[in-house]
């Protein structure tokens, strides 16, 4: 792991440089003073999507969802729990595909919920359809293992 990491604040979208050994010390953004890790997904928009998925040195898991989607609503608690359990190893974010169509179209989201793990802006893994807590956790651990070993992405 790098000595210094760049993280994007979930409140003000500022890029923050942080020593890697301080990830679990409840670091705060120097601009807005909110904690960088709050154990909940960061809401993304078309305006901040690229910054979050490409400028975070941590992998970013994005839940593409919509408020009318029953499976999205059913999976939301498991996704929130995963955020509480796996931060700061991963960064969690949600994008409402009804409100923010551009990133969803660009990433060819055809069904929701769809989860994508991004590593430095590159799509590493994708899963469409709702997952329960244990399946979601296993899928995310697979993503972390793939990143740690430098395994190539199965996504073309």
Written description of the protein model:
This protein has about 160 residues and is α/β, with parallel strands linked by helices. The protein has a single domain, classed as Glutaredoxin. It is about 30% helix and about 25% strand. The protein contains four helices and seven strands; from the N terminus they run E-E-E-H-E-H-E-H-E-E-H. The protein has helices at about 50-55, 70-85, 100-105, 135-150; strands at about 5-10, 15-20, 40-45, 60-65, 90-95, 115-120, 120-130. It has a five-stranded mixed beta sheet with strand order 3-5-4-6-7, sandwiched between helices. It has a two-stranded antiparallel ribbon with strand order 1-2. The model has no long low-confidence stretch (mean pLDDT about 95).
Quick tags:
156 residues; alpha/beta; Glutaredoxin; five-stranded mixed β-sheet; two-stranded antiparallel ribbon; 4 helices; 30% helix; 24% strand; globular
């Amino acid at each position: 792991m790098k000595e210094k990491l760049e993280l994007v604040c979930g409140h003000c979208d500022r890029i923050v440089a942080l020593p890697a050994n301080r990830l679990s010390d409840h670091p705060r953004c120097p601009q807005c003073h909110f904690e960088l890790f709050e154990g909940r997904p960061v809401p993304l928009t078309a305006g901040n999507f690229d910054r979050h998925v490409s400028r975070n040195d941590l992998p970013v898991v994005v839940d593409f969802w919509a408020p009318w989607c029953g499976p999205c609503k059913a999976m939301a608690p498991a996704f929130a729990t995963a955020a509480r359990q796996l931060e700061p190893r991963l960064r969690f974010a949600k994008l409402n595909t009804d409100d923010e169509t551009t990133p969803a179209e660009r990433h060819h989201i055809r069904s929701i919920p769809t989860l994508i793990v991004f590593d430095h802006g590159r799509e590493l893994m994708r899963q469409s359809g709702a997952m329960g807590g244990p399946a979601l956790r296993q899928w995310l651990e697979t993503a972390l293992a793939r990143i740690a070993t430098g395994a190539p992405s199965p996504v073309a």
